[in-house]
Predict the 3D structure of the following.
Amino acid sequence: MFLRIGIFYVLTWFFLMLLGGLQQATGILPPEIGLAQWGPGIAALLMLVIFRKDGPKITFFSKGTPVLRYAYAALIPLGVSLVVFLIKSLMSIQHSPDYPTYGAFLPMVLWMPFGAIGEELGWRGYLHKKLDPRMRGLWSSLMVGLLWMPIHVAFYSKGPVFLFFLALLIISYSVVIYALVQDTGFSVVLASIFHLFINVSNLLFLDVIYETPFMIMNALVWVVVAIVVVVRKKELFFATKGLS
């Protein structure tokens, strides 16, 4: 299993760099469109081609998923972001001098669903589904979050404190998404809706998203949400899995 995960992760980084490099070299797309987001998805699809006999395939859409689950996937990020927004309004956080602008707002928003699908094909559709039969839900969520975080290269210059809380934030996302999608065969559509609404909600925070105090506060709010989810679904996160 871990050999497969290693190959997937190497392929993910290869396609991240390839797509990001092509976009930068050609300039055919504005920087607000992150073509590299499709790195994990392409890596996952290639893994299915290389290792055709590995077992379960990616579940793009699960027919048996209740409609309410899709509503939760959208409303949870929006609701938590509202709490973050209210707390932010009570804090004095200096605006980033280099924060992203709304100059390419329309193409950025139009790209968001495609970017979310590109990532979730890899992180949930392939990676988490691969880990789930062999690892307890909490540990697999932790591993996926830790592997997911480093692709956010735009934040590398923000220092170790910022990156530590970014890791906590993304691990918390991973925990919540796991609870939403585990019993759907890791539905890519369902995970992508959650991912999409995280990105949409972040539009509220473009002026402070690169600031460490905001990242600390945002991460801690999501950590609380993740803890609540784990406590409410202990059987899902702590069930013993096979080691084959």
About this structure: Residues 105-131 form the longest helix (27 residues).
